[in-house]
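Researcher: Please translate sequence to structure tokens.
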Amino acid sequence: SCTIFIKYLDVNIYFSIDSAIAALPFYSIGYLYAKSDMKLNNPGTNLLIGAVCMIMNVYLSRFNGFADLNMFNFGSNIVLYYLNSIIGSFGVIFLCKSVNRITISPLLYLGKNTMTIFATHGITSSISRQIFTALFGSGLLFSEYSPTPSLRLLPAIAIALMTLAFSYIPIYLIKIFFPWVLGNKRAATVKA
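Model: Translation complete:
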């Protein structure tokens, strides 16, 4: 209810306090999930639940339109935004739990550097979109030009993968030149 009140006041609250308030349901549900007894350890069950959640997420996202919590934009329906966001979050959680026994070095490295990725993903995703547009044109990026929903999803996946790949650059530079930003001492060498 606070989020709806802030949204319809149409005021700019500095330092993204409005987005932090809007994210409170995610923190609450995450806390309740962590405290619950709903711990499924079967990778097959986790994979199935995660896949169903992600399919539901992709399907429901078509009805709400563009949403961006950082810009305090919830699409066409705030209830659908929260429902879809929570379903998508659980989809990611269960998919990750289904493969948690598999060691994939690049993913482990990115997982250990999520703060850097979070701080730089705006820049790296912008670069990824520009490169994608230069290579394939802008037609695939905009839904009104895409003939089918699957063609809208493929560029999004490609850009997300490019963004993760480009994230290695700021991670490396911060570890070498600015380790104090992350509370570390200067490293002599960095293993990629």
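Researcher: Any highlights?
Model: Confidence is low (pLDDT under 50) at residues 145-150.
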